[in-house]
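Subject: Sanity check before I submit

Could someone independently write out the structure tokens for this chain? I want to compare against mine line by line before I put it in a report. The sequence has 219 residues.
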Amino acid sequence: MLTVNDLSLSIQKVPILDGVALSIAEGETVGLIGRNGAGKTTLMRAIMGLIDRESGELIFKGRKLHAEKAHARAGLGIGYLPEDRRLVPHFTVEENILVPLWASKKTADLSRLKWVYDLMPEIGRFADRKALTLSGGQQKLVALARALVVGTDLLLLDEPFEGVAPALAQHLMEVISSLKDENLSVLISESDYTHSKEVVDKVYVIERGSINQMENINE
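---
Independent answer below. Compare away.
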């Protein structure tokens, strides 16, 4: 589904990623583990085209993803949950969920939206509320719903459990675990795999912008 080959980039001339390589197969859930500042968020932002690479390749379903404009990547079937959620405060929950469809100029798939509401019924119950009225945990759920509505093939989840109560973290993990039935490919970043260990198929460890090892969890 996704292959990252020898990816390197710098921000303001400071090297951040150095020869990063990883792969995610169709239907596979992969962990990206590293301390704060290790390069997890930068890697996800590079995959989404929000940061320009200096060298290396991003191959998605056999096509050169790095050749695609950033705003077009959601339309390719890639959903992204950023660490800081990035909701539009004065938009309703449903408007926030539909933003990536509007950005990619795709007609809203109401069946996909209904599927998201069925998967997380609490989202449907406050669909008409403004995002700014939600708790941090509720906003995290909305950001996940936004990623899911376009992420028909690949989901990038950057620190989805950070800053949420244990009960909500468990609920998020249950939702993510259920995605295996949908044959979605998922990349989850965490500082460790406390939450995701039971669902990931393999884990990449990133340190100082480099992938140092890969562990097969199920072996």
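---
OP: Matches mine. For the report I'm noting this point. The first strand starts at residue 2 and ends at 11.
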